[in-house]
């Protein structure tokens, strides 16, 4: 399996609840190398663009409100099979359905406020990473 990259955000709920350190520890302990990272806050326009694929969904407004209400940690992670392995590490979208030990099982409170984002394909990982980081910020 080739080494590749995925994109993640520690979402506002997990930041508010003081879980940045514990989540980064889980990520690095699972073998992911951090190749870019920043503490930032999405504007409404950023969130609408980032989640544009969901714009017809009934929860879109709620999602944009949530993702913009406070700071996030954005990062690009590198590992063999990064996209799939990171989705396994974070668990199902709904924390009630997430496997034991996954980041969402441990730190998420609801299907909307679910602590972390993980790209769902290599193509989206590249698009999402480029959305947040300039080339000189990626190591
Ligand atoms: P994932 O983040 O697991 O890839 P999706 O791409 O389906 O999940 O959804 C993107 C984000 O939208 C979710 O992580 C969650 O924050 C939010 N979301 C998804 N489904 C719902 C829902 N039914 N109600 C509220 N928010 C939702």
Folded structure, characterized:
By secondary structure, this protein is of the alpha+beta class. It has a single domain (3-133), classed as Nucleoside diphosphate kinase-like domain (Alpha-Beta Plaits, 2-Layer Sandwich). It is 40% helix and 20% strand. The chain has a 4-stranded antiparallel β-sheet, with helices on both faces. The protein is globular, with a radius of gyration of 14 Å. It starts with a strand and ends in a 7-residue tail after the last helix. The model has no long low-confidence stretch (mean pLDDT 97). The structure holds adenosine-5'-diphosphate. Adenosine-5'-diphosphate is lined by residues 54, 59, 62-63, 93, 111-112, 114, 117, 120. Adenosine-5'-diphosphate (ADP) binds at residues 54, 59, 62-63, 93, 111-112, 114, 117, 120.
